[in-house]
Design a protein that fits this description.
Length: 68
């Protein structure tokens, strides 16, 4: 349901819809990479631009790392 008062409502609806399709089709029990690949297919089909496993800076206590 798209709500005009929420800036990202339309894209959020698409992403959740894609995730629900993957969950409905695959169910539970697969390794994470299987869900990633299936979600990539659904996002592409929906015309949603995305990137997988983007490197990000992570701060944990006094430690800072770049994690992918």
């Amino acid at each position: 349901m798209i709500k005009e008062e929420y800036k990202y409502s339309e894209i959020t609806e698409k992403i959740i819809g894609c995730a629900m399709k993957v969950h409905s089709a695959l169910g539970n029990g697969f390794q994470e990479v299987i869900y990633q690949r299936a979600l990539a297919i659904e996002l592409s089909n929906a015309g949603v631009e995305f990137a997988r496993e983007v490197e990000m800076p992570i701060h944990y206590g006094r430690i800072q790392k770049r994690i992918r």
